Amino acid sequence: MASLFLSTFIKFFFLLTPFFVLSTFLAMTRNFTPKQRAGLAVKVTTSVLVVALVIFGVGNFVFQVFGITLDAFRIGTGVLLMLTAIQLVNGGSQPESAEAADNIAVVPLAIPVTVGPATTGALLVMGGEVHGPADLLVLLAAIVAAIVLVGLCLLGSAHLERLIKKLGLVILSKITGLILAALAAQMVMVGIQPFLTTH
């Protein structure tokens, strides 16, 4: 169970593209006071938590209703994740700043900056792979822990910005993109394998 928690935690943490989220958060809150920035970080974290748990919870229902196989969804999710990874490596565009915190907490910071199409797909796949209540609790704990860690990064965004500077954030975003690309390739290969063995 510990290995399942750790692997899910690490995988989902990188799926949330924390360094890209952090750089976007900083870009959109340049004119915010420290109190406003902290309040926004809490709202974004709460929004991401609610959205992720809802998506995770309806995974099996989605597969049953639409007749989608888990392997097919793995392939589709892997492709979306690869596109996200390419955008990060190439340097994705960032939203313009200076809107009220209430207007940007859910959209665009929670959705789609933090929980984008690829993350949504990965959550649905995780929900479809649950085997029993023990696995469910471990997966939920890992997802919540990853989201909370991203939230803590946002809360400490000003300190992190001073520590690693803008160039450091760019480099970390590109490293995240490379890790996501590897995860995407793995998901596609796992999804394709059953189709290859049955033909």
Structural overview:
Helix 1 (2-15) packs across helix 8, helix 4 crosses helix 7 and helix 5 runs antiparallel to helix 7 (117-128). The protein is 85% helix and 0% strand. The chain has helices at 2-15, 18-28, 34-57, 59-66, 70-90, 101-114, 117-128, 132-155, 157-197. It is globular. The longest helix has 41 residues, at 157-197. The chain has nine helices and no strands. It has one domain (2-197). By secondary structure, it is mainly α.
Question: Which properties best describe this structure?
Answer:
single chain, globular, 199 residues, 85% helix, mainly alpha
Shape assignment:
globular
Number of strands: 0
The radius of gyration is: 17 Å
Taking the sheet with the most strands, its summary is: none
Distance between the termini: 35 Å
Question: Quick recap of the structure?
Answer:
The protein is mostly helical.
Task: List the SSEs and their pairings.
Elements: H1 2-15, H2 18-28, H3 34-57, H4 59-66, H5 70-90, H6 101-114, H7 117-128, H8 132-155, H9 157-197
Helix pairs in contact: 1-8, 2-9, 3-6, 3-7, 3-8, 4-7, 5-7, 5-9
